[in-house]
């Protein structure tokens, strides 16, 4: 093990207020009910935020409607673009503040929020700003839908906000967005950024609250479009509530991605890809490479190198710049990871984690690998959404594809091989919205992202991401 001196990022740049209201029609208004948000690394209460009820949801939807009809819908695309560019630039200017706040509220390592989340958030706004005056060339029409109701999860709070809000605004829609109850703070700073950018009131409305607030939003008669990212179970409920209405719907749900390592793969690179695939953001990633499929001749070698690499991962303070694995987002999520990992042991899989000291307070789970996993095991079928890898082996390429596709999900997959022909052969057969070759968890705003089957439908990112917000 390497010893490092602690290198914590200062939190002085962040000014968390004791309480926040709801951001409706360009103003923060106090909510009747409130909920608390905590730092999952210390269990310290960070702030109290509003919990929007029926009247407040209604106010937000009405504000978005008025803004759509009077200002934002009629505005020429080149004018809308200026606001999006301005927002993108302010995000860059305030990126350190946003990264620290994201790590405090979510538990993710500062290295990730600073170097991955924030640059991608700004890039998304820049990218869609560029489309705002070129919709006629995108091929999906130019007419916005109206008001979008958007509900997002806690794993990438600000990045999911960007994925939802940037294409909606670029296409001339207005939005009411509900962040997850455990990670509302960066969305509330984003509301402040909208004011700083002089965005007309009502174009973006942020209403905080738990699942009930989300349910009230997606079932409100005044919205034209629902965009949801989160669990498959809630996705199903939303699909049922939207069925039979004229609302348009996109769902980005769970996954159980296969990361397929062939025997000719560059093994050290593959091990880095496996680590990135399952331990990035504590494995709380819908496209995480949670099933490692490794070809038999190299299985032992890959596992030996993986264990050596895992022993160097540093678990702890999310604000420390050396930290690789931060805190699990909530006590509830930690319990889910623990429960499913216990099931893995009961089913006969072999569990291994490197020795590591976990902090006493907060929600922590060590990087863990299960070997001897069979396809019937629950840990090979269900989304664990934590730093837990299930390892299966295969003999032939055909067997690899069969096992990789043996899942109700279909969001992402990884292929590791030195041969381009083998990569193309596999990519054509893997039933997944995104297939990475000799890399994993690589994102770009120009590239569409989305799933098959129970992973949802619709694409976010790229030109394709415009389609969900236009009438055609
Ligand atoms: P969730 O689906 O319950 O929550 C996601 C968002 O939906 C939150 O903002 C929540 O408040 C809201 N919500 C909850 N119930 C709602 C309803 N009936 N109508 C409208 N909105 C509602 O996810 P969770 O409970 O935080 O996590 C559960 C599991 O979901 C995780 O263990 C993981 O497997 C999966 N998950 C997937 C993603 C993803 O990116 N695909 C993200 C988070 C969680």
Q: According to CATH, what is the topology of the largest domain?
A: Aldehyde Dehydrogenase, Chain A, domain 1
Which descriptor suits the 3D outline? globular
- Low-pLDDT runs of 5+ residues are none
Which architecture of the largest domain per CATH?
3-Layer(aba) Sandwich
Radius of gyration: 22 Å
**Quick one: how many beta strands?**
20
CATH class value of the largest domain: Alpha Beta
Q: Which strand order spans the largest sheet, edge to edge or round the barrel?
A: 14-15-16-13-12-17-18
The termini sit apart by 58 Å
Helix content: 25-40%
Instruction: Give the percentage of residues in beta strands.
Output: 15-25%
Mean pLDDT: 96
User: If helices are DSSP runs of H or I spanning 4 or more residues, what is the number of helices?
Assistant: 15
**Which kinds of small molecule does this entry bind, naming each only once?**
nicotinamide-adenine-dinucleotide
Largest sheet: 7 strands, mixed
The CATH superfamily of the largest domain turns out to be Aldehyde Dehydrogenase, Chain A, domain 1
The computed structural class is alpha/beta
């Amino acid at each position: 093990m390497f010893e490092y001196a602690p290198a914590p990022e200062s939190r002085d740049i962040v000014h968390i207020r004791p309480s926040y209201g709801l951001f409706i029609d360009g103003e923060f208004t106090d909510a009747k009910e409130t909920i608390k948000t905590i730092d999952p690394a210390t269990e310290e209460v960070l702030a109290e935020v509003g919990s929007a009820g029926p009247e407040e949801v209604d106010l937000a939807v009405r504000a978005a409607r008025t803004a759509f009809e009077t200002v934002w819908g009629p505005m020429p695309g080149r004018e809308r673009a200026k606001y999006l560019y301005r927002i993108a630039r302010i995000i860059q200017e305030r990126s350190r503040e946003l990264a620290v706040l994201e790590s405090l509220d979510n538990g993710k390592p500062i290295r990730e929020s600073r170097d991955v989340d924030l640059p991608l958030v700004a890039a998304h706004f820049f990218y869609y700003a560029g489309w705002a005056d070129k919709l006629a060339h995108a091929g999906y029409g130019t007419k916005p839908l109206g008001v979008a109701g958007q509900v997002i999860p806690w794993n990438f709070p600000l990045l999911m906000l960007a994925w939802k809000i940037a294409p909606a605004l670029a296409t001339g829609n207005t939005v009411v967005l509900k962040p997850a109850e455990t990670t509302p703070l960066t969305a509330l700073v984003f509301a402040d950024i909208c004011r700083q950018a002089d965005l007309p009131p009502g174009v973006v409305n942020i209403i905080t609250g738990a699942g009930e607030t989300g349910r009230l939003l997606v079932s409100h008669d005044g919205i034209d479009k629902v965009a949801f990212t989160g669990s498959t179970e809630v996705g199903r409920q939303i699909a049922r509530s939207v069925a039979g209405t004229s609302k348009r719907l996109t769902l980005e749900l769970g996954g159980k991605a296969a990361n397929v390592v062939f025997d000719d793969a560059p093994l050290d690179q593959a091990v880095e890809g496996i680590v990135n695939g399952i331990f990035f953001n504590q494995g709380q990633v819908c496209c995480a490479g949670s099933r490692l499929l490794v070809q038999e001749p190299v299985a032992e070698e890959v596992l030996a190198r993986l264990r050596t690499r895992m022993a160097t991962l540093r678990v702890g303070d999310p604000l420390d710049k050396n930290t690789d694995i931060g805190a699990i987002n909530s006590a509830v999520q930690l319990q889910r990871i623990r429960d499913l990992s216990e099931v893995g042991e009961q089913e006969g899989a072999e569990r291994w984690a490197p020795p590591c000291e976990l902090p006493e307070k907060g929600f922590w789970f060590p990087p863990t690998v299960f070997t001897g996993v069979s396809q019937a095991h629950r840990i090979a079928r269900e989304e664990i959404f934590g730093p837990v890898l299930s390892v299966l082996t295969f003999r032939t390429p055909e067997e690899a594809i069969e096992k990789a596709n043996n899942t109700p999900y279909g969001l992402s997959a990884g292929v590791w091989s030195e041969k381009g022909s083998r990569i193309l052969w596999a990519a054509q057969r893997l039933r997944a919205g995104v297939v990475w070759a000799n890399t994993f968890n690589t994102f770009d705003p120009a590239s569409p992202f989305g799933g098959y089957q129970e992973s949802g439908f619709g694409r976010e990112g790229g030109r394709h991401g415009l389609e969900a917000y236009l009438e055609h």
